[in-house]
């Protein structure tokens, strides 16, 4: 299942991976990668559909800067 986020100009995403990533998970990441599909909506926002392995964490940039 894909994660769908809306971003405005200048907003960011961060991808992170566990420090204990297994060899099998790393192999999956290298073989399958991360897919990002970009769409622009009527309000001139960008919608991102992100498909990544379950062990990949995707965070909005503003959440990281507040922690």
UniProtKB/TrEMBL annotation:
Gene Ontology biological-process annotations? mRNA catabolic process; regulation of carbohydrate metabolic process
Gene Ontology molecular function terms on file = RNA binding
- Name the InterPro entries on file: CsrA (IPR003751), CsrA_sf (IPR036107)
A Pfam family: CsrA
Which protein are we looking at? Carbon storage regulator
Keyword set, alphabetical order: Activator
């Amino acid at each position: 299942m894909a994660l769908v986020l809306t971003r405005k100009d200048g907003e960011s995403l961060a991808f992170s991976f566990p420090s204990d990533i297994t060899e099998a998970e790393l192999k999956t990441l290298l073989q399958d990668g991360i897919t990002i599909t970009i769409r622009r909506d009527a309000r001139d926002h960008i919608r991102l559909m992100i498909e990544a392995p379950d062990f990949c964490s995707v965070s909005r940039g503003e959440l990281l800067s507040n922690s």
